[in-house]
Amino acid sequence: MARLKDKVTLITGGAYGIGRATGKLFLEEGAKAVVLVDISAEGLEEAKQELSPLGEVVTVTADVSDDEQVKNFVELTKERYGRIDVFFPNAGIEGEVAPIPQQKLEDYEKVMNVNVRSIFLGLKYVMPIMMEQNEGSIINMSSVAGLGGSPGVAPYIASKHAVTGLTKSAALEAAGSNVRVNSVHPSPIQTRMMESLEAGFNPEDAEAAKEQLEAGIPLGRYGTSEEVAQLVLFLASDESQFITGVQYRVDGGMGAS
Ligand SMILES: NC(=O)c1ccc[n+]([C@@H]2O[C@H](COP(=O)([O-])OP(=O)(O)OC[C@H]3O[C@@H](n4cnc5c(N)ncnc54)[C@H](O)[C@@H]3O)[C@@H](O)[C@H]2O)c1
User: Fold this and answer.
1) Edge-to-edge strand order for the sheet containing 86-88?
2) What is the DSSP letter of 102?
3) Which residue, 146, 153, 154, 175, is the most exposed by fewest CB within 10 angstroms?
4) Which 3-state string (H, E, C) describes 122-156?
5) CA 55–ligand 1 middle distance (angstroms)
6) Of 125, 7, 137, nearest in space to 70 by CA
7) Residue 255 main-chain phi, psi, to 5 deg
8) Across the 257 residues of the chain, what is the mean pLDDT of every consecutive 10-residue run?
């Protein structure tokens, strides 16, 4: 399979979970290179070990909420490969579980910085490169939490709604240069993040929290990182070349009710 043949791809939050699974799929689909960015050097090392047999993997340890560091990893990719075809800003954090009056301002700001500022900065530095090459696909990581509310995680919900706004604006700004910008909106997916949220929703019985969440998903289970990666692959590939500015759910049917 070679749906990404010769494409240079850049993924943030690539050390674990959905980011790593997407990097793996990109290489299996013939990507020329996958640049994985993450704050966890240890996780990046593990990811590199796993993915390197499949193709070219470059890892960069960086904080996606830092202006200079984002500028640097985008420049590094462009300098090394001469172009960036696919950008998947996926790094994110869940924040604390608490009702709004008990949320701390510093936690709210941290969530907004890692989940939104990061995507703003990524767009700011990647869009000019793609617009100049007159080609490119950006897939912003949002969530079902970017399309509706949910009690206890207001900063996360607000951050993921902001990603939807950035996606629509960027899509309109870049369309004239043949650059596409879409967002993906997963339901609960089996990763570290959901384990942390389950413990936050029900500190005494995280398994009960999981069962309750699964009961709200018509297909009756969490999704997998690989299932999200398949959607990202479609949006990254030329198969979606007439699609931009769209919010794609990968949610086991949650959006149907
Ligand atoms: N798991 C879910 O249920 C779910 C559902 C919808 C959306 N998402 C979104 O998917 C994305 C990936 O999450 P995941 O589920 O794979 O969880 P995860 O915790 O396994 O992955 C998040 C990755 O982002 C990295 N990261 C965190 N802060 C960073 C920073 N400041 N700079 C650079 N990297 C940083 C982490 O080290 C980690 O590798 C997140 O944006 C998350 O909000 C997850």
Assistant:
1) 57-61, 33-38, 8-12, 86-88, 136-141, 179-186, 247-250
2) G
3) 175
4) HHHHHHHHHHHHCCEEEEEECCHHHCCCCCCCHHH
5) 23
6) 125
7) -75, -5
8) 95 98 98 98 98 98 98 98 98 98 98 98 99 98 97 98 98 98 98 97 97 97 98 98 98 96
Angle, helices 17-28 vs 225-236, to 10°: value is 50
Taking the CA of residue 184 as reference, the ligand 1 atom at the shortest distance is 7
What is the chain's alpha carbon radius of gyration, rounded to the nearest angstrom?
17
156 carries an active-site annotation: yes
Phi and psi dihedrals of 214, rounded to 5? -65, -30
34: three-class secondary structure by DSSP: strand
Answering whether pTM is above 0.90, one says: yes
Other beta carbons less than 10 A from residue 82's beta carbon = 10
Best probe residue, ligand 1, of 67, 189, 224, 225 (max atoms within 8 Å of C-beta): 189
Candidates 222, 210, 154; CA nearest to 186 is 222
Q: Which residues, at least 6 apart from 239, have a Cβ–Cβ distance to it below 8 Å?
A: 3
Residue with tokens 């990061």: 118
pLDDT above 70 covers a percentage of the chain that reads 100
